Amino acid sequence: MTGTTQDPRLAAAVAGWQRALLDLTKRNRALNFRPTRVSTVAVVDEQPAEIFRRLVLREQPMRFAAAPEPPNGSPAEPPADDVDVPAPEFTPYDPATLDARQTDEVLQTALVPEALDHSLRRLDEQARLAIEEQGVNTLFLALGMVHYTEAEASDVTLRAPLLLVPVELTRRSARAGYQLRVTDDDPLVNPALAEWLRRTHDVALPELPDVEALDETYDLQTWLAAVAATIDARDGWSLKNDVVLALFSFQKFVMYKDLERNAAPIASHRLVTQLVTRAGTTDDHVVGLPDDVRRMDLDAEFPPERTYQVVDADSSQLRAIAAVARGHDLVVEGPPGTGKSQTITNLIARALAAGQSVLFVAEKMAALSVVHSRLVAAGLGEFCLELHSTKANKRAVIRSLGAALDRSLESVTAVAGAAQRLPAVRATLDEYVDAVHTLHGALGATPFDAYGELAVVRDAPRVTYTGPIEGVSRALLDATVRDLADLGAAAAPIGVPAEHPWRDASRPLYTDDALHTIAALARDLAARLDRLVYDAGVLETSLGLPPVRTLADVDALVAIADVLRRSPGAPVAVLASDRWNAAPPEATSLVARGRAAVALRERLLARLAPEALERDHAEDVSYVRHRSEGILSFLAVLDGRWRGIRARWTQYRRPGVAMSMAEQAELMADVDRLRAERSALAAADGASLFGAAWRGEASDWDALDAYVRWVTELRALAVRHALAPRVLELAARGPVDVGAVLALRDAARDAVTVLERLRAEVGWPADYLGAAPIAEIAGRAAKLAEHVALGPRWAAYETARRAVERGLAAELLGEVTSGALPARDAAAAFRRAFWLRWLTAVVTLRPALERFSTLTHEQRVAEFRDLDRRVFRENQATLVAQLRERVQQRLREGEAARGMPLLRRELARQRGHAPLRKTLGEATAAVRAIKPCWMMSPLTVAQYLPGELPTFDLVIFDEASQLPVEDAVGAVIRGKQLVVVGDPKQLPPTNFFAASLVDDHEPADGMPAYEDAESILEEYMGAGVPMSRLRWHYRSAHESLIAFSNVQFYEGDLYTFPSVETDTETLGLRFQFVEGGTYEGKGLNMVEARAVADAVVAFARDQLARSARGERPLSLGVGTFNLRQQLAIQDELEQRRRADPSLEPFFDRGAAEPFFVKNLENIQGDERDVVFLSVTYARSADGRLRYNFGPLNGDNGWRRLNVITTRARAAACWCSRPCTATTSTRRRRRAARSCCASSCCTRSAAGWRASRRAAPPTRSRRSSATCCARSSTVG
Question: TM spans, by residue (predicted)?
Fold first, then answer.
């Protein structure tokens, strides 16, 4: 809007809303009254003025008299539709001339007793429902009717009620008759008729005098005569004495007049402009919550001790409250059971604490009552003015104002001790919560996540993981787990890998040709090894050689054979003697002496003749040495003996050898030494050591040396291989024929060659099976040949194994291969080991976790809970004290002070109070000062509040998904800030109630014709208003009660609390099989209706027994899938209540949560401990299942299903005869129909089990310690 120029879209929108509210056509029952068979009771032979005097002026109740039963007990025919008892034309009369029956308390009717009672009961039920659902009393006693024609030439006479007296029906029990009483509302001239006459004919009906100013002497005939005079001038028009009790609805007309009066303020209001043009500031058009709210640290910036929270609030609720506190308009999406009412309670409390006025608007009385009850429990009820339906009567309002005014004079002591301690305790718990929920490392997981992961695999086998944790990403971890899962799947057909014929094969693929080659090689190898084992056995027997167990044993056998082949022969005693395990010293010494003697002899013979070796020379040597010493040694030549010795020695010299006597003396000494060695050798026992090879000095010393080496070599083999005596005996004889051993060697070499080829084809590692026993190799080869077809499976397993080997879990492969860890458990075992190690590492890094003690933590949690509750009480007391002080202060100021005289006069009166419109209009400031929170319906907003300017700081709508824009916009303009609360996935606005007022007939689906519309909630969601969704679901005591809706409609986005009783027959979903249940068409299943009624009676008796024992009884509601089934169940219950009066206490409407029977069009907003659901739809008598599920087939059927399935707190019992699985999914063309069939019709009679969401591990969200410490009593 720019300057004074109005956006034409706004004018068009206001005009459209007005058209939607105003109905001056013949569809309007108030302009074209046609009686219905059940929901109309015509009063006959009575005078309207006398009824007005007794019922309105004297405020006396009246009762009904039925027509006599037909004679002879024949059943009376029910009156046909649109057939009336004719009424006389209005004619003034003298009251004194009337019969007594026209002035008594009895209203005459033309209905027989049973039909009368049935009609009155139906009227009572529908009127009560309209009050509960719309905050509107629709039950009126019409006094007089204008009979008229639309055109002078028309012969069709229409009727319009003239004076409408708001009434109510009451009875003490099902057996008692109904009484008719006037309500606190004033009688009114038919507003639709008055508006139609004004618009169409420019006729103004006479005004009805103020009832409060009349006494019982007033005669209504005066006014009736004035009306008759006004209309008599028109041909075909007349006023007649018709008196009917029927249902009329005028709230749309009242709201139309409100829009008409306030068209300009509506078009100029900021919120209406945004709604229509979708054009606000950039900041207005956000997705979700504004940034400043979304980023808030709630514990630091919005703690309960500083924000006047009076009831519990979770993080999603707190963020919504914070957004409103910061001045944002807000749409709050509240799925079932997520605490919408408690959020509204805290919103109102915060606004009152900030000195703001609040207008809370709810069409459904249950929604308003829940919030009001919470405010009363928080001590704030005295500041709330209830102006909804039955609460909007002047006596109740004046009494409420007087009580609040009196209380405002009472002081309240507020103590703030808990608020000081709470932050420290919360900080301690938050530190722990942060430690548990803060992400760590590349994995991006929290300890809470780790505990969740461990909970899933806590029973997995224990293994050790020593690999990395810090650098592990979620992708790598998931890949490892997947690889292990693949390994488990690949290993399933394999069994224990270590026992598989193809074990240790490494090729990832085997072609048919490769398998053929492997089979041939395996068979060849097995045959060769079998022959080898046989030949080795023969050698063992014939030669006494060691057994051959491995291919290496063949090499040992060859080594033994080589020694035997080189045998020089030796005594058996030598070969068997341990002394020869190493060369004996005496043998080596003897050989050494022999070698030395031979060397000495050869050296001597090189210079001396052999004769010199034949004698001793010791004396000659001694003499020569003596004479050669001293200074006179040169004189020795003179000595004859010297010369004789020289002559001999010279003869011993080889020709050409010259030497001195001294030199020869040394040489001759060596001759003596040689002779001594010869004697020693001759005396030595060499034969015992060397056997025949010993020949004394003549022995072959090289041969003896080789002999020693051979014997020690043989002894080494004998010790190593424990050679049998037979082998030693053969060796003692000399060289052994070892040709068979060499043949065995060649056979073994050929087998090794085949094995090497087989290794290459199979993919075994190098030297694989090389050291294995020959029998094992042969067995493996035979198994491989036998199971060659298993190769591809092993290749798949090997591929999976290689993938694991490249990942984090390589160290587990050994246990998997050996079978110690079943492959199917490998993934779980790895996850357990990994998360344990990861969690251990993280705990050591976080002091809050490292020092965690369950006992201390539980004490701190208990302290927090106590402080939290105390803070709420302190907040309540502080707020009450502030508000009471504010009441007295404001009543002394300005408009409030000027309005107090009028208010005091009304407070002083016992009766005859001024109309509420007048009181609230003239003393609105005073009333607002006493009660800054007004709780109203859209109708009472239009009735009692001026709309020229926004007079409330905050307007809050509840159950806004059911409010059409035209109904809500009048309340929107009364405020400066807006909060719209509802669920776009629940019921949309519908004209169901208007349709049900005028139509007793149900089409094939059992529902009156109705239309859905767009709601104020959805419109503001599309207008760029910030939005917040409540996510914590508290209502359901068992997860199964919300699981279906959570998954099907909320994408699993709701956080639920697990039930402490998971296997119970008293909580959660149950199924009651209805034997013989048959769908009769038009929304009716009488067998099921009777079964549900019987179940209700049984439940009622149980609860009455609980009450008698002093236990809290459970509340009960019944939900049906259409209107006709609802009426059938109500009729069945009526019969049972009449038959058993002891049941009446259970059906008391004054109970905190009274019993109800509702259908899916009006059950939204109601909840009970237990809900029975009558499915109705089943196979018909001909056995066919017709794919028509009533309203669920409609476009918004899924929303209706969402509502009806989420009404129970503790248990829900589905009553039906199952359709079984023959229901074709292909033929369910709408989502709602599919949901209904899957949820209701495919369960067996054996029992009902809830659909549980698999995985995700339980999700957790928190913003403060409230998530771990606050009790879950919110809802």
Answer: none
pTM summary value: 0.70
pLDDT, tens digit, for every residue of 399-423?
Answer: 899 999 999 888 887 676 777 787 8
Question: At which residue do the structure tokens 């803060």 appear?
Answer: 438
- Buried b / exposed e over 319-345, threshold 16 CB at 10 Å, is bbbbbbbeebbbbbbbbbbbbbbbbbb
CA 1102, 1108, 1112, 1118 dihedral sign is positive
Q: How many CB atoms lie within 10 A of CB 804?
A: 23
- The CA distance from 1107 to 1144, in Å, is 14
Cα dihedral 1222→1228→1231→1233 (10° resolution): -70
- Per the CB < 8 A criterion, the answer to whether 957 and 968 are in contact is yes
**Two tokens, residue 1087:** 């067998």
- Share above pLDDT 70 across residues of the chain, in percent, rounded to a whole number: 90
CB 352 within 8 A of CB 358: yes
Which letter does DSSP use for residue 392 in this model? -
Q: Which residue has the higher pLDDT, 358 or 76?
A: 358
The full DSSP string for 538-551 is HHHHHH-PPP--BH
Tell me if 365 sits within 8 A of 135, measured CB to CB.
yes
**pLDDT tier for residue 1258 given thresholds of 50, 70 and 90:** very low
H helix intervals, 636-724 = 640-652, 661-683, 686-690, 701-721
- On whether the CB atoms of residues 1189 and 1227 are closer than 8 A, the answer is no
Weakest mean pLDDT among 596-610, 1074-1088, 1179-1193: 1179-1193
> Distance of CA 1117 to CAs 614, 1066, 1178, 1213, Å?
143, 16, 22, 11
Among 1121, 1246, 1100, smallest CA distance to 1173 is for 1121
> What's at 725, amino acid-wise?
P
Q: Are 936 and 956 in contact (CB under 8 A)?
A: no
46 vs 860 pLDDT, higher one: 46
Rounded to the nearest angstrom, the gap between the alpha carbon of residue 875 and the centroid of all alpha carbons in its chain is: 34
CATH architecture of the domain with residue range 1051-1220: 3-Layer(aba) Sandwich (3.40)
- What's the rounded mean pLDDT across residues 31-47? 89
The CA distance from 523 to 304, in Å, is 83
Containing 21, the helix (H) or strand (E) segment is: helix 8-21
pLDDT tier at 1087, thresholds 50, 70, 90? very high
Helix (H, G, I), strand (E, B) or coil at 1122: coil
Fold agreement (265-277+287-403+860-1028, 1051-1220) = yes
pLDDT value of position 869 = 82
- Angstrom CA distances, 501 to 753, 784, 830, stand at 21, 5, 27
Is residue 1174 within 8 A of residue 1125, CB to CB? The reply is yes
Structurally, what CATH architecture does the domain formed by 265-277+287-403+860-1028 represent?
Answer: 3-Layer(aba) Sandwich (3.40)
- pLDDT of 1113 over the 70 cut: yes
Sheet holding 1156-1159, edge to edge: 1068-1073, 1208-1216, 1168-1174, 1116-1120, 1156-1159
∠ CA 376-377-378, rounded to 5°: 90
How is the chain split into domains, by residue range? Answer: 25-248, 265-277+287-403+860-1028, 1051-1220
**What pLDDT is attached to residue 1275?**
31
Q: Is the pLDDT of residue 1237 over 60?
A: no
Q: Which of 14-23, 457-466, 618-627 is predicted most confidently?
A: 457-466
Per-residue DSSP letter, 109: B
Band of the pLDDT at 1246, cuts 50, 70, 90? very low
Q: Which residue has the higher pLDDT, 432 or 1004?
A: 432
**What are 342's two structure tokens?**
């408690």
**Bridge pairing between strands 1168-1174 and 1116-1120:** parallel
